[in-house]
Amino acid sequence: MTTENLPQERPLSELVGSSPSGAAWLSRYSDSLMGVFGTPQRVLVRGQGCYVWDADGKQYLDLLGGIAVNALGHAHPFVTSVISSQLSTLGHVSNFFTSPTQVALAEKLLEITGAPAGSKVFFANSGTEANEAAFKLARRNSTNAANGQRTKVVALEGAFHGRTMGALALTAKKAYREPFEPLPGGVVHVPFGDVDALAAAVDDTTQAVFLEPIQGEAGVIPLPPGYLAAARKITHDAGALLIVDEVQTGMGRTGAWLAIEGSGIVPDAVTLAKGLGGGFPIGALITFGAENSERLSAGQHGTTFGGNPVATAAALATVHAIETQGVLANVRAVGERLRESLSALPEVAEVRGRGLLIGVDLALPAGVPESANLAGAVVNAALEAGFIVNAPGPRTVRLAPPLILTAEQADTFVAALPQLVASAAAQLSAATTEKEAK
């Protein structure tokens, strides 16, 4: 069969079918998809810039960006044109072959991350896959100077590195880990931000230390000043690798290409994903220096889809737009304005983060019990008011909007937050009263 025998244009609605409302789509969802995500909050059908629309026609300001993924917002014209052009030319070839976009993207990532000579890139499809590759890289650091065996990997309490088995072993949250134990062995978790605890755990049996510069899933918690430098010295002295997970913090999210910029350290490896493809799935492991780049040899790791022409074209377009459209400066300016404005609200107890990765700890309103999921109620109230945010904890709201968010758009959320908290508090207080009455 030739392409001439196929319809050249076909409305997408003919392929997916139609439903009259979001509720109807959700009913179809529950009948056909596994329930690992629970019930979706809305059925989204269209996006433009920092806004999305649901199946019922309601507009939302997207302050989560697909969890720090949509770096340039939705339907960015340059990125979509590059993806379309590449897909109409060459979509997939496997890694028996390469493509110009794959090579060019690897070169660009080595350039913008300041990787030293001998550094290399491995492309995957997601952050968890990038961290799986990094875990295997760590396992290759298996012998110490005394010809003994290295078997231990150290990660931090509060860490989130993914949900596949290796990445899950690095992840600290018990609720994620325990249903799937036994996990790959040898991983120990030490208290977050405690240099002495890290120094005590890292010895000549340690293969690597994994850490995030800012723990996003834990509530946007930055490492304390000096911790990265201390971790670099501790791992260097022990012959262990320092692997930095920048899946959420990288690619401009904090106002720099990497959150570790300015720390003075050179890691052994960095993982990237989320914002790298501007919404198109892609991940990357960057090995720093020739010695680390040679740890994984031909046949020791691989992927069918990783680094395909379309994904690497999408990432190239995303990087180009960030470079040429003043995006990093916008992240710094709007992020600072947003953090300062939020900090001034009496409803806010603390604001953390850098750039446009922000954690907002809410003050507990009168009448709301300590055990209440205040942030979850605020997320629901925000949806009703036309804002998409996220609650990584019961008192914490996370913001990770597109990097093109304007100051005016940010201001609308700041202005709305007091009423969102009040609405959430009223709902929680009423529920508590009703429960006590019973």
Describe this structure in words.
- The protein is of the alpha/beta class and 438 residues long.
- The chain has 15 helices and 17 strands.
- It has 2 domains: 12-75 and 326-433, Aspartate Aminotransferase, domain 1 (Alpha-Beta Complex); 80-324, Aspartate Aminotransferase, domain 2.
- Strand 1 and strand 2 (51-54) form a beta hairpin.
- Helix 14 packs across helix 15 (407-437).
- The chain starts with 11 loop residues before the first helix and ends with a helix.
How does the helix and strand content classify structurally?
alpha/beta
Q: What is the level 1 CATH name of the largest domain?
A: Alpha Beta
Portion in beta strands: 15-25%
Low-confidence parts = none
Q: Concise description?
A:
By secondary structure, this protein is an alpha/beta fold. Helix content is 38%, strand content 17%.
Helix and strand topology:
Blueprint (H helix, E strand, L loop, with lengths): L11 H5 L5 H11 L11 E5 L2 E4 L4 E4 L2 H4 L8 H11 L12 H13 L7 E5 L2 H13 L12 E5 L8 H6 L3 H4 L9 E4 L4 H7 L4 E6 L2 E2 L5 E2 L4 H12 L2 E5 L23 E4 L10 E5 L2 H4 L15 H16 L2 H17 L4 E7 L2 E6 L11 H12 L1 E2 L1 E4 L2 E4 L7 H31 L1
Helix pairs in contact: 4-12, 5-12, 13-15, 14-15
Describe this protein with a few key phrases.
Aspartate Aminotransferase, domain 2, 17% strand, 7-stranded mixed β-sheet, EC 2.6.1.11, Aspartate Aminotransferase, domain 1, 4-stranded mixed β-sheet, alpha/beta, 438 residues, PyrdxlP-dep_Trfase_major, N2-acetyl-L-ornithine:2-oxoglutarate 5-aminotransferase activity
